[in-house]
């Protein structure tokens, strides 16, 4: 008799559990190993995504440049990318849309820099004829590196840019196969602390304030079909930022689980000026600079490129 009474109750409990599980929207979010994505990590670790009905799986990919293909294939639903990737992808015919921001540029930031081999170049002019590594050709740091050289009076065409993965830049400098690198934390901190290179320019002070550094994007089809999930995603990131402001050490520890850097490097990481809302106007710097560098075939419609 007890078994017969328990069975219906157990069935109801299982049905309720199944309904709750089904209500969770599953989202795989691609990211690269940089501090821009601390809110993503905190929202995952502290349960802010789950609280808002999202089952989020962060997935690390090597470079922003591979993200559009990952979105198109459906292997990820949201991708965290350097902002120029969104402009390039749409210029090439893809229909991708920005969902949220990660941060905006702060000229006092120490998160990016142009490093040179120890004992090497002392000025921009010394880089003529030299080899500079960037994490991706025609990607954000390559664009910034070319702009910085041009602003210093050096023709970027007189410098050889080569692709070098972030983690390998220190060894490439030590080995002498490159003369300089445009890099970002946590790899910038590693290079400086190891003595593999010295800082020639922090780059950030020479750039205008307020443009979008990195952002989250999806295909437009996914965005149009998942409005409530996107609102929850944005809200969870905002919750994570509130937590990080109140508990910076815990937030940094959450980030460390994903970046997997030595404790001294994690402790010294510069965190950017985080900002979740994304506006089309925050992409104007990239549109202008990329057009100047001949990277876009037409002027982009920035307002249409950002989801409401």
From TrEMBL:
Residue ranges of domain SsuA/THI5-like in the record: 36-251
Domain of life: Bacteria
Xref: SUPFAM superfamilies: Periplasmic binding protein-like II
Location of this chain's protein in the cell: Periplasm
Record's keyword annotation contains Transport: no
Entry protein name: SsuA/THI5-like domain-containing protein
Transmembrane segments: none
The keyword Transferase appears for this protein: no
Keywords assigned by UniProt, alphabetized: Signal
Main location: periplasm
The species this protein was found in: Pigmentiphaga daeguensis
Signal peptide: 1-23
Family: Belongs to the bacterial solute-binding protein SsuA/TauA family.
Pfam families: NMT1 (PF09084)
């Amino acid at each position: 008799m007890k078994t017969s009474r328990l069975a219906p109750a157990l069935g109801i409990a299982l049905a309720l559990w199944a309904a709750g599980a089904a209500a969770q929207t599953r989202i795989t979010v691609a990211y690269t190993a940089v501090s821009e994505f601390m809110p993503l990590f905190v929202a995952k670790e502290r349960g802010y995504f789950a609280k808002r009905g999202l089952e989020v799986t962060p997935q690390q990919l090597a470079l922003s440049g591979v993200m559009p293909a990952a979105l198109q294939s459906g292997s990820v639903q949201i991708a965290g990318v350097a902002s120029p990737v969104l402009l390039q992808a749409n210029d090439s015919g893809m229909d991708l849309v920005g969902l949220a921001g990660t941060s905006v540029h702060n000229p006092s930031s120490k998160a990016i820099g142009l490093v040179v081999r120890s004992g090497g170049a002392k000025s921009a002019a010394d880089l003529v004829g030299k080899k500079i590594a960037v994490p991706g050709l025609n990607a954000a740091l390559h664009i910034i590196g070319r702009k910085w050289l041009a602003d210093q009076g050096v023709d970027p065409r007189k410098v050889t840019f080569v692709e070098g993965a972030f983690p390998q830049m220190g060894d490439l400098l030590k080995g002498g196969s490159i003369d300089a690198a445009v890099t970002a934390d946590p790899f910038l901190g590693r290079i400086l602390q190891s003595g593999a290179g010295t800082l020639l320019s922090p780059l950030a002070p020479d750039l205008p304030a307020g443009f979008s550094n990195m952002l989250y994007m999806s295909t437009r089809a996914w965005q149009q079909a998942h409005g409530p999930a996107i609102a929850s995603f944005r809200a969870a990131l905002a919750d994570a930022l509130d937590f990080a402001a109140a508990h910076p050490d815990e937030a940094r520890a959450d980030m460390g689980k994903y970046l997997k850097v030595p404790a001294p490097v994690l402790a010294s990481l510069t965190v950017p000026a985080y900002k979740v809302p994304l506006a089309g106007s925050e992409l104007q710097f990239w549109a202008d600079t990329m057009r100047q560098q001949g990277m876009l075939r037409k002027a982009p419609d920035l307002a249409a490129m950002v989801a409401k």
